[in-house]
Amino acid sequence: MSVNSSVNEFILLGLTQDPRKQKAIFGVFLMFYLATLLGNFLIVVTIKRSRTLGSPMYFFLFYLSFADACFSTTTAPRLIVDAISQQKTISYNECMTQVFASHFFGCMGIFVLILMAFDRYVAICKPLRYTTIMNRHVCSVLVILGWVGSCIHSSAQIVLALRLPFCGPNMIDHYFCDLQPLLKLACMDTYVINLLVVTNSGAICMVSFIILLISYIIILYSLRNHSAEGRRKALSTCTSHFIVVVLCFVPCIFIYTRPATTFPVDKVVAVFYTIGTPLLNPLIYTLRNAEVKIAMKKLWCSKV
C-alpha cells in the first residue's frame, strides 16, 4: 500500500450497473475469453510443434499469441467474475499488480507487431539478404529487447501509480485498474503525472503506429517490382498484419494520448484492445494464412 494513501481497496464499477446486462456480460465475455485462450494456445502449440513454421514471422507470431493470451488474462477474468459478484472490490496491491501486468503484456504485443513489420520489410525489400539479417540469433535478441522494453515501460507506469495519494473516493469507473481512472481518484494535482503518462504510454502508441504505417507504405511501394504472385502473397500477409495494427493502435491512441479526462465511452473503447484484439488476432492470422491452417490440420488431425 502506498505510504501516501489511506485507501486499501477500490471498487470496480465495471461496464454497467444493470443486473440484466451484467448477466449478459458474464456469458458473452466468458465465451470471448475462452475463445481467446483456445485460439492463442492453438497457435503457440502449432508453431512450437510444426517443422514447417520455422521462419522468423512465425517465431514472432508465437510471442504475439503468448503476449495476447497473457494480456487478456490481466483484465478479462476480473470483468467476468465482477459481472456476477456482489463484492466488486480489488485490493490496492492487486490494483497496482494489474496496472503493471496489463502494461507489460500490452507493450510486449506492440513491440512484437513492430518486429513482425520489420521482418516483412526485410523479406520483401531485401529478399537476398533476408536469411542473413533475420537469423534465429537476431530474432531472439530482438524479442529479448522487446521484453526488456516492456518491463521498463510498465515499471515507469507503476512508479507513477504508486506516487498517487488516495484519501477519499475509491470507486473506479472502469472494469480494470489503469492510470487514467486512478488519476481521477487521486487527491492531488495530477497534471504532471498525466503529462508523464501521455509521454510514456501515449508516445509508445503514437510513435509505434507511425513507424508501422511508414514501414507498410515502404513495403507496398517496393511491391511494384515483384511478380503478380509475389504481390498477392505479400499483400495477403501485410493486410493481416495491418488489420491487427489498426485494431490495436486506434483505441490505444484514443485512450492514452489526451489530457486527464475520461469519457463514458472509454470503457467500451478499452474492450477493443484488452479483449477484442487478443481474440481477433488468432482468427486473422489463421483464417488468412494458408501455411498456419495446413500446419494446424496436420498437427491436430494426427493427434486426433
TrEMBL record:
User: Which subcellular locations apply to this protein?
Assistant: Cell membrane; Membrane
Q: Which UniProt keyword terms apply here?
A: Cell membrane, G-protein coupled receptor, Membrane, Olfaction, Receptor, Sensory transduction, Transducer, Transmembrane, Transmembrane helix
Q: Where mainly found?
A: membrane
Residues in coiled coil: none
Give the membrane topology, semicolon-separated if more than one. Answer: Multi-pass membrane protein
- What domain of life? Eukaryota
Residue ranges occupied by any G-protein coupled receptors family 1 profile domain in the UniProt entry: 39-285
Name a single GO cellular component: plasma membrane
An MF annotation (GO) of this entry: G protein-coupled receptor activity
The transmembrane residues are 24-45, 57-80, 100-118, 138-162, 191-222, 234-256, 268-287
For this chain, the family text in UniProt reads: Belongs to the G-protein coupled receptor 1 family.
Described by its record, this protein's role is as follows: Putative odorant or sperm cell receptor.
Name the chain's protein. Answer: Olfactory receptor
Instruction: Give the organism the record lists.
Output: Canis lupus familiaris (Dog)
